[in-house]
Amino acid sequence: MAYNEGLAQRVRELLEDRADELEVVEKKMFGGLCFMVQGNMCCGILQDDMMVRVGAEGHADALAQPHARPMDFTGKPMNGFIYVAKGGLTSHDNLAEWVDRVLKFNSTMTAK
User: Fold this and answer.
1) DSSP labels, 63-79
2) Were both Cys, which of 45, 54, 75, 85 would link to 62 (CB 3.0–4.6 Å)?
3) Nearest-angstrom CA–CA distance, 108 and 30
4) Which pLDDT score, from 0 to 100, does residue 17 have?
């Protein structure tokens, strides 16, 4: 599988805006690209979809958003993770909202 490099660059730029407060590492995983923040999996790009980690408490609300669906990479939905389809990521504001959401959850986890 490949990942949408344009979408990855847009996510990179949003994360770089906070580079002074965050440690961001990119890793190629599962045929896509994963962004690790403070050592924890935060979000990623798989084909044209964005994988977002919102945690168990944020799962239902995130899933209720337009273009969101369960992350079922393993064939079984993973609680706390969802996919956002390309249609939900077209504007800068839409993408920034998802990045803010994943960073909010990430801030609740212990840095590794």
Assistant:
1) HTSTTEEE--TTSS--T
2) 54
3) 25
4) 85
